[in-house]
Amino acid sequence: MRIRCKVKDVKNTVDNIKRYDLDTQQNLVKVINSSLGRIGKGAKQRVSSRGLRTNIAGRKLDIKSRISTSRANYTKGKFGGKVESKAPHSHLVEFGTRPHSLDKGARRKKMVINGQPVAGKIMHPGAKAKPFMQPSYYSERSKYIAGIRKAVEHKK
């Protein structure tokens, strides 16, 4: 799941990062990485979790353990980073779902719910949105913008 958030002034600054001296570039990368770390930590704190769960193959199913952060690295010329959840159902938790049918058509012969086989049309009641990524970004956004401005103005 990926949510793209653009801040026009910051985007222009980061796109033109090569124009700044090396110290300013390093300061910008530090600001970016510290904000990415706080966004990732906030997302992990906000997501509801019932503990670490794995499927039969041993793959982690919980969202909290699947949130990862890739950081900026000025020595490699990578001046951006991302916080993402690699759990396949993250978007369903973040944005919620509408009531929908669980009937898969002719392919489904039976479905087991709570250990009981169920036949016929089954309706899922939907789920309320429980956002965890967007609130963590928006809580960090003002600090991120202020940090970028301070890093750039530092060397003027």
Flag low-confidence runs: none
**Large-scale geometry:** elongated
Largest sheet: 2 strands, antiparallel
Structural class: alpha+beta
Spell out the helices and strands N to C. HHEEHEEEEH
Describe the protein's architecture and organization.
The structure is a single chain. This protein is of the alpha+beta class and 156 residues long. The chain is 38% helix and 12% strand. The strands form three sheets. The protein has a two-stranded antiparallel ribbon with strand order 1-2. A two-stranded antiparallel sheet has the order 3-6. It has a two-stranded antiparallel ribbon with strand order 4-5. The chain starts with 7 loop residues before the first helix and ends with a helix.
Annotation keywords:
156 residues; alpha+beta; two-stranded antiparallel sheet; 38% helix
Question: What is the compact description of this entry?
Answer:
This protein has 156 residues and is α+β, with helices and mostly antiparallel strands.
Q: How are the elements arranged and paired?
A:
Layout: H1 8-15, H2 22-46, E1 67-70, E2 82-85, H3 90-95, E3 100-101, E4 111-113, E5 116-118, E6 123-124, H4 133-153
Antiparallel strand pairs: 1-2, 3-6, 4-5
Helix pairs in contact: 2-4
